[in-house]
């Protein structure tokens, strides 16, 4: 306003908030060679794992200029693709693996849906009997296809950490995002997940894990949040609180542009924290 009133004679430059946002965007945009894989985990259902996958993926896809995809690896009828308003295909990960004609990006794109943010989504098999047999070998085959065409690959995991596919997910992950809620039982389950990962040789992933506290209802007590944050700060990379947002509470089609500013910023901060690890990206044939 002062800039306008003085005819441009007084200009204090960008505000602190503007500078901080620019820094976030710069961090998210940083280039890397190869592909980077993120596993989004939770052994307790209903805490916002799929929503977090969409929020993180949308933040990355909105800011970056390369390709970002989220894969639904939930064997119990995952809902990731149902949250994307794109009816151009009903294809699933199983259809992708059965396709003998994958030669270029357009061939893979026939099997994916795209959100308004440019995030692509590869659906899981909707028949539970068939989805259950999607195991480690299938997951590795899926990653072997996608790594040629996508720069950032997110996996929306199921809640069964002992499921066969999880071995492949964890072996191939460059980073993990652990999702929980401020509820004590959910936080205990998340903490037990970190314990299990350490006990099974995944301590490197735990040390740099991004822990997401997703508020499913308004007004989570500050004291409860502080205690949960304090617990996870002592054993993981960083903590991200996703505030309650009416758009997320609907559980319907996800649109990054419809989020409240504070919610969008929280996902951008999560994306920037994940992007800080892009130096671990695997060199591959690159996306084309």
UniProtKB/TrEMBL annotation:
GO cellular component, one term: cytosol
Domain CobQ/CobB/MinD/ParA nucleotide binding as annotated: residue spans: 38-249
Keyword GTP-binding: no
Keywords, comma-separated and alphabetical: Plasmid
Cytoplasm in keyword set: no
GO biological process: negative regulation of cell division
Alphabetized InterPro entries for the sequence: CobQ/CobB/MinD/ParA_Nub-bd_dom, P-loop_NTPase, ParA/MinD_ATPase
Pfam families named in the record: CbiA
A molecular-function term among this protein's GO annotations: ATP hydrolysis activity
Protein name: CobQ/CobB/MinD/ParA nucleotide binding domain-containing protein
